[in-house]
Amino acid sequence: MEKNVNIKNASGLHARPAGMFVKKAAEFKSIVEVIAKGKTVNAKSIMGIMSLGLGQGDELTVVAKGEDEEAAVNALVELIEGGFGE
After folding, report:
1. How far is CA 56 from CA 3, 10, 41, 73, in A?
2. Model-level pTM greater than 0.90?
3. Residues annotated as catalytic (active site), given as ranges
4. Could you give all domains of the chain from N- to C-terminal order, each with its CATH number?
5. Cα–Cα distance for residue pair 24/56, rounded to 1 Å
6. Predicted local confidence at residue 75, as pLDDT
7. What is the largest CA-CA distance in the chain?
C-alpha cells in the first residue's frame, strides 16, 4: 500500500516533525518506507528521514508492507497533512 503526500508545514520535515513521524511509524508492525527525491529510506529511522531534507511543498510517497500496512500509511499521511501540529 502506498500514498503520495506533500509536506504542508512551513519548516518542512525538520527534527521535531521527523521525530514524530518516526515514532508514529514505529507503532506499526509493517515495513514502512518513505520515497522522496529518488531515495528510499526506512520510515522508522530518524537519520533516514532527516537525510531526505524535505521542505514545504516537497512530495513524498509513504509505502508500507505487512499486516497493518493500510493503518500505517493512513496514520502517517494524516500526520503530514495535519502539518505536525505546527
Report:
1. 18, 5, 19, 20
2. yes
3. 14
4. 2-85 (3.30.1340.10)
5. 20
6. 98
7. 33
